[in-house]
Write a structure and sequence with these properties.
alpha+beta; four-stranded antiparallel β-sheet; 21% helix; 36% strand; globular
Length: 159
């Protein structure tokens, strides 16, 4: 059991971009953090194809409560953001696809299908108000359309 705890702490520490600053090269970022969990094109920084811009995703899900996205332009860090926050949760609107949601929040901690409700729920482990409880952000997808129906947050008390 202690090995699992230490392994989780090591994983979280190795995926925390504290030392990543604007102006750093992508090679240096990869040297410090390892390979990203995912890479997406960054449409906001790509100006009509003039710039090569992408987002590297470093998620601490399912054990951690953060997901960092590092935005690069022409191989250089522009900025780093932690996306599991209310600012980004508000971007998850009915009608978005699962791909769109993952591009905003990173990979979820879990995914569950509820046939009786005709929905699939993606769930992210998030920071909450107290350290004594567990908090989650859920995105509910309609099984027929595969689009967001709604979002919700929940708290599970620790005993």
């Amino acid at each position: 059991m202690f090995l699992n705890i230490f392994a989780a702490c090591d994983f979280i520490a190795s995926h925390h971009p504290d030392g990543i600053k604007p102006g750093m090269s992508s090679d240096l970022v990869q040297q410090n953090l390892g390979s990203p969990d995912d890479i997406f094109p960054d449409e906001l920084l790509s100006k009509n194809g003039e710039n090569f811009a992408e987002i590297w995703v470093y998620s601490q899900q399912p054990m951690g409560k953060t997901c960092y996205m590092i935005h690069f332009e022409n191989g250089v860090v522009r900025y780093v953001e932690q996306v599991l926050d209310n600012f980004h949760f508000k971007k998850i609107l009915p009608g978005l696809s699962q791909e769109d949601v993952v591009k905003i929040l990173g990979k979820p901690a879990s995914q569950t299908t509820f046939e009786n409700l005709n929905e699939k729920v993606l769930e992210w482990h998030i920071s909450g108000d107290t350290p004594f409880d567990e908090y989650y952000f859920d995105v509910h997808f309609d099984l027929n359309t595969q689009l967001v129906k709604k979002t919700s947050q929940r708290m599970v008390g620790k005993n």
